[in-house]
Design goal:
Blueprint (H helix, E strand, L loop, with lengths): L9 H26 L6 H19 L13 H25 L7 H30 L6 E6 L3 H11 L6 E7 L13 E3 L4 H7 L4 E4 L6 H13 L3 E4 L12 E5 L2 E5 L8 H21 L1 H15 L5 E7 L5 E7 L21 H8 L7 H7 L3 E3 L6 H10 L12 E3 L1 H4 L9 H17 L2 H17 L6
Parallel strand pairs: 1-2, 1-4, 2-3, 4-5, 10-11
Antiparallel strand pairs: 5-7, 6-7, 8-9
Helix pairs in contact: 1-2, 1-4, 2-3, 8-11
Organism: Pontibacter cellulosilyticus
Pfam families: Bac_transf, CoA_binding_3
Family: Belongs to the bacterial sugar transferase family.
Length: 464
């Protein structure tokens, strides 16, 4: 297991705890101002739970307000915070109607929202300052290097280094035959041939490429290395004469930047929308379908064969972080769990064959969605053995692990489901997974969910 890189985001958890604490304090103060007491009545207690839950959905799974890679200004972060409160208010208003809380004091609601907004905004500004100090420490969260110590590289370094709110740490330049008269010559860590080993040894998060775009082989090689090792690769040359339509261009202050791929889910607003839908959809399935369907499936599994109702297996998720994936058990208990199911597989029970045909064996994975390990839609999590094998023979295989795996995916609804006896079948799956990553939209998720349900109704020949 040690050969897989595990990424943990403690900032997100600590920030959520801080927000809930501030919301609690805001509720207490608001109730004291309105009614002269710190004790909540029943309706206000229900409102508190809804308020905190909706805030968790809206912002608890997003770090965009504290982007420490330096791509968003402080003004942009504050604008995103305002957008979060607007989205929060919209969802909360709907919850108030659904749970019949209209009799809450309007003045109390006003006090609550104003105090919550002030406390969270002030906490964000203080955290912003802390990240400024954090930038200067030796344990900065985001470590970056610059390829090229010429004019473009020096200009980028000066821009990034002069901003105290980035939460990043500059680790050095990489340049073949650097100019000894360069004022930053002492910060050159080696030639470009030394870059890969340095990135792995020092856990580099971002590589900025500032050399002319004349060495296509070098660009492809570094880009592939970055994809395989979860390093963000950004091109920052003078590209005014070479911009293409399929390249993402943006500016940080006056420094132009290119992104090799379209990455819609890198934008925090898109991640918020996707996570909010995941939680809402999974809760609906858990509350409306599980209570009556799960006992029936569990009983059928138990009647036909001995063994547990649920099957648990480690699967590689986002950035290869292993997680426990849940399914209904569809096979007789055996020791070949890393062996992919085949047509007429003797391990599969009769009940299991029906569950697989209708996708009902995947239902417990909605718990994985609520835990944050999976999404409703995304690349399907493959076996660990498949990760070991296919990452060596398919160049873009690891790219699919840039995003959270899903219960259903674009490849599955496009006909690439089931056994992958031939390499080309897995290559097509990866092709569709990458297309999904680069073209994600909320409506695309809705389309995939609709096609999944439709395939469940009509049946799939490759589902076994």
């Amino acid at each position: 297991m040690n050969k897989y890189r595990h990424y943990y985001s403690f900032n997100r958890v600590l920030l959520l705890i801080l927000d809930i604490t501030l919301i609690t304090f805001a509720f207490k103060i608001s109730n004291l101002f309105r009614y002269g007491s710190l004790d909540f009545d029943y309706q206000y207690s229900v409102f508190f739970v809804l308020f905190a839950l909706v805030w968790w959905i809206v912002s608890g799974f997003s770090n965009f307000i504290f982007r420490i890679d330096g791509l968003f200004s402080c003004e942009k972060k504050l604008a995103n915070l305002i957008n979060s409160f607007i989205l929060h208010a919209f969802i909360l208003a709907s919850c108030i109607v659904v749970f019949n809380l209209e009799q809450l004091s309007r003045l109390l609601l006003l006090y609550t929202y104003i105090s919550t907004a002030l406390l969270i905004t002030i906490s964000r500004l203080l955290m912003q300052q802390l990240f400024g100090y954090f930038t200067k420490s030796d344990v900065a969260h985001t470590r970056y290097v610059i390829v090229g110590a010429g004019q473009a590289g020096m200009s980028l370094y000066q821009t990034l280094n002069n901003n105290e709110n980035l939460g990043t740490k500059f680790m050095g330049f990489f340049e073949d035959n650097p100019d000894t008269l360069n004022p930053y010559y002492s910060q050159v860590q080696g030639g470009i041939a030394d870059l890969k080993d340095y990135c792995l040894q020092h856990s580099i998060d971002e590589v900025y490429y500032t050399l002319p775009l004349t060495d296509r082989e070098q660009l492809d090689d570094l880009s592939q290395f970055a994809d395989d090792n979860f390093v963000y690769f950004r091109i920052v040359p003078d590209f005014s004469a070479i911009v293409q339509r399929d390249v993402n261009m943006y500016f940080y202050h006056n420094v132009p930047m290119l992104s090799i791929r379209k990455e819609p889910l890198e934008l925090a607003s898109n991640r918020v929308v996707k996570r909010a839908f995941d939680v809402a959809f999974s809760l609906a399935v858990s509350l409306l379908i599980f209570p009556w369907l799960m006992p029936l499936i569990a009983l059928a599994i138990k009647i036909e064969s001995n063994g547990p109702v649920f099957f648990k297996q480690l699967r590689p998720g986002k950035k290869n972080r292993l997680f426990v994936c849940y399914k209904f058990r569809t096979m007789h208990v055996n020791n070949n769990t890393e062996l992919q199911a085949t047509k007429n597989d003797p391990r599969i029970t009769r009940v299991g064959r029906f569950l697989r045909k209708t996708n009902l064996d995947e239902l417990p994975q909605f718990f994985n969605v609520l835990l944050g390990d999976m999404s409703v839609v995304g690349p399907r999590p493959n076996l660990v053995s498949q990760l070991d094998h296919y990452s060596k023979v398919i160049s873009k295989y690891k790219m699919r692990h840039f995003v959270t795996p899903g219960i259903t995916g674009y490849a599955q609804v496009s006909g690439y489901r089931g056994e992958t006896k031939e390499l080309r079948l897995m290559e097509k799956r990866i092709e569709y997974d990458v297309q999904y990553m680069e073209n994600w939209s909320f409506m695309m998720d809705m389309k995939i969910i609709f096609l999944t349900v439709w395939n469940m109704i009509k049946g799939e020949k490759n589902a076994y």
